[in-house]
Design goal:
The chain is mostly helical. It contains 6 helices and no strands.
């Protein structure tokens, strides 16, 4: 019984993963229509939202709403990042970075699925890393 539930949860994680990547992709496309003057306030708003989520316990319970908000805003802001990368560094470097990211997801997904049985205690470390990445990007 427990093994079946665990397999079901693993398959649901992959479905959510694909779902959020599709939302992200749609909003990266829509990001080209985002006015330039909205980018900085959205970046600051995303950072504030993440910090509030860390501090306010009640915000954590609305996880599905927050996940969508994070994904949508990140997608909108990522279009500009991708275009600046192509403009400054060239499309070859962008494609190399995308390939490295995809390979990283595959490798870490493989490691996580087969070797790490319970990664629930890693969330706080990954969340702090996420915030550092956002602060550094601003």
């Amino acid at each position: 019984m427990r093994n079946e539930n665990q397999k079901k949860r693993h398959s649901q994680v992959w479905l959510y993963f694909m779902y959020y990547w599709m939302i992200f992709g749609v909003f990266v496309y829509l990001g080209q229509f985002l006015p330039i003057e909205w980018r900085k306030p959205l970046s600051i708003g995303l950072l504030v939202l993440i910090l509030i989520t860390m501090v306010v316990q009640r915000a954590r319970f609305s996880g599905i709403i927050m996940s969508h908000i994070y994904t949508i805003i990140s997608g909108l802001l990522s279009y500009a990042t991708l275009m600046y990368t192509i403009e400054d560094l060239g499309s070859n470097l962008l494609i190399q970075n995308v390939i490295i990211a995809v390979l990283g997801f595959i490798v870490f997904g493989f490691i996580g699925y087969f070797f790490i049985k319970d990664a629930s205690n890693m969330g706080k470390y990954l969340f702090v890393t996420f915030i550092v990445l956002i602060v550094m990007s601003i």
